[in-house]
Amino acid sequence: MQTTENRTEVKAIDCSHFIDGEYVPSINGKTFENINPATEEVLGTVAEGTKEDVDRAVAVARRALRAEWGNMPLRQRSALIRKVGDLILERKEELAVLESLDTGKPIWLSRSVDVERAAYNFHFFADFMTTVGTEAYQQDDIAMHYAVRHPVGVVGLINPWNLPLLLMTWKLAPALAAGNTVVMKPSEVTPMTATVLAQICKDAGIPDGVVNMVHGFGETGAAITSHDDVDAIAFTGETITGSAIMKAAAPTLKKLSFELGGKNPNIIFADADLDDVIETTLKSSFINQGEVCLCGSRIYVERSIYDEFIEKFQDKAKDLRVGDPFHEDTKVGALVSEEHYNKVLSYLDIAKEEGGHFVIGGKAAEGFEKGFFVEPTIITGLNSDSRCVREEIFGPVVTVVPFDTEEEVLHQVNDTHYGLSASLWTTNIKRATRLSAQIEAGMVWVNTWFLRDLRTPFGGMKSSGIGREGGAHSFDFYSELTNVTVKL
Ligand SMILES: NC(=O)C1=CN([C@@H]2O[C@H](COP(=O)(O)OP(=O)(O)OC[C@H]3O[C@@H](n4cnc5c(N)ncnc54)[C@H](O)[C@@H]3O)[C@@H](O)[C@H]2O)C=CC1
Ligand SMILES: O=C(O)/C=C/C=C(\O)C(=O)O
User: Does domain 3-260+463-487 have CATH number 3.40.605.10?
Assistant: First the structure.
C-alpha cells in the first residue's frame, strides 16, 4: 500500500534520548526499530534506554530544578510555556505527519485533534498558572495561616501510544507550569512526536535539563518509577501497568497520578435525538480506530428503539472508509502495532466462541497486503458475562445490548471494575440528573461524548485511575503545599 498520497515532504525520524538539552544515544548504544503500522516498513531507529540513561536524565533534571528554572518569575515561565504552544502550531504539519506515521491514525485527526490539542494544552496552562492561588485562613486574632506552593520536584511522565503528543503535553504543560523538571518516557511504539517536542521546548527557551526524555520499553519506565530521586509519576496506560508502577513506586513513596483503562458505556434511551445519537456513537465507537480510553465500547439501547438504532448505526458504520492514514477520506486507519492488531483480532474470535453476532465487521479489513487494519465491528447477542463486554479491547469493536428499565441498565453499566466515563442519552432532564449521579464513572457526558473543557476534573474511579487531571487538579498534583502559621 502506498502511504505517501497527500503527504507533505515530512520524513520519519530516528529517535534519540533528550538529556540536558541535547539528543543523545543510549549509553550502551542499543536501539530498536520503529515500525509504520500501515505499511509495516521500518520508520527508523529508537534509542533503547537503560537504568544508566535514566540515572543520567534524573540527575540532570534535579540539577535544573535548583538552577534558573527553580527561581524563574511566574510571568517569565508562563511566557516560555506559551511559546511551546506557539511552536507546536508552527510545526503542525510536521507533527501531524509524524503522529500518523507512528500510530496509523488518519492525518486529518492528527491535525485537528492531536496537534491542535497539544498546542492548547500549553496555551491553557500558560494562562491558568497565572491565576492559581492558595488557601489562607484568619483564626480570629490568634493567627494567620496561609499555604505556599512548591513544585513537587523531578516528575516522571510515562505515556501510551494512542494519543502520544496529546497525552504527553497534557502532562508536560502543567508539570512545567507548576515549576517541576521532568523525565518523559513516550511509548516505545510511538516515539516520534515526543522526540520533536523535546527540541521544541528547548527552542521555546526552556532551560536545558528541565525537559528530559528517555526512550525504551517497560524496563525503562520501571527504572523511572523505582528511581529514588524521582518525586512523582504521572502515568496513562493499561490498568495492570498502573498496578506494577504503584508497587515499584511504593518503597520511595512517590506521588502518583494514574489515568488507566476503561470499558465505557453509552446508554441510549428512546427519547434521545436518534440522529445525534448515531453521529456521536459513530465517533465514540470508531474514532482513532477505537483506541481512545474514553471510547464507548459497551452500547446499551432501550428496547423500543433497539432495531431502529442497529439499522441506522450499521448503515453509517459500514460506509466508514478503512485504510491509508494519509488519504483524506479515511475514517479508520491502521491499529498501532502487530501485537495490538493480534489482540483485537483475538477478541473477535472470542466473540464468535461466546455466540456473538457480527452486525458488521468481525475480521481483518480486506484488500491490504500489509498493515494492521481491522473492520469496524458491531457485535450483538452477547450477555453481560462475555469477555468482549467486560474487557478493554481498545479497537474498532463495540457490543450493543438492549435494555428495558433504568434499574436494569444502571446495574449493567456499573457491573465492571472500570469507571472512567459514560455517555448518557435522554431528553428527560430528571432522568439524566438522577442517573448521572449513580453511574460509577469519573466523567459522564449527557447527550454528547468527549466534550472537553480543560478546567474540569478528568480521570477515572475504580480500576480506571487514581486522582484527576485538568485545571486546578493538575496543578495540585504537580505541586506541594507548605502551610505557614503566623501568630498574631
Ligand atoms: N489510556 C488508556 O486507557 C490506554 C489503555 N491502553 C490499553 O493498554 C494496552 C496495552 O497498551 P500499552 O501502551 O502497551 O500500555 P502499557 O500500559 O503497557 O504502556 C504504557 C506505557 O507504560 C510503559 N510501561 C510498561 N510497563 C511499565 C512498567 N512496568 N513500569 C513503567 N512503565 C511501564 C510503556 O513502555 C508505555 O510507555 C492496550 O491494548 C489497551 O488495552 C493503551 C493505551 C492507552
Ligand atoms: O482529552 C484528554 O485529555 C485525554 C483523552 C484521552 C485519553 O486520556 C486516553 O485515551 O488515554
Answer: yes
